[in-house]
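By convention, each integer encodes one residue's backbone shape. The lines below illustrate.
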Amino acid sequence: MDMDMDWMTAPHSMGTTIMALQYDKGVVLGADSRTTTGTYVANRASDKITALSDNVYLCRSGSAADSQVVSDYVRYFLNQHTIQLGRPPTVKTAATLVRELSYQNKSFLEAGLIVGGWDKYDGGSIYAIPLGGTILQLPFAIGGSGSTYVYGFLDQAWRDGMNKEEAEDLAVKAVSLAMARDCASGGVVRTVIVNAEGVTRNFYSVDKLPLWHEELAPQSSLLEFNEVEPMHG
């Protein structure tokens, strides 16, 4: 019997939902946790929000290998930058380095990235660097395969001047909406909040996420579904 085994040689990809939102005192970054190899879920609890420095974080989508190597290079350069200047890097500096690497290697990389963080010069700021190396400063940014399902929702729901709780609730809601519709997004929701006080990481397991239309509640066993009839030998 022939079986389609293309997933065994497919590259690891983060068919993903990533996002970042500005609020009145900082930024909130959010992401799902599913990493795929073709149609196979290679990792259901990966962390797609990577620290570039103590005050700047990177949301990664696209090829896992490509986005990881970009983040590794930028983290190294920012570390040297911090030592030379004696102060933390600005978000703009980090985003410019990400953009430079993405643009100069655009023929080889498949990575859509979002840089978000806080510094004393610009406060909370967000930069989107999609495929090709364009850089866009935005009040909110979304990326990955799940982003197509929530563009309209965020256009309607985001507003200037939100507080921290409102921004994080919106990020969790938007990511969970995308996870409900996009088969390449799933797992848990992770958030990172960056402001003048520092960084807070939060984790939302599947049973803590809202359920949307036609979604089934999480179960520990298929036998817990009422519709499942017992098998007879």
Observations:
- The chain has four helices and 13 strands.
- The chain has a mean pLDDT of 89.
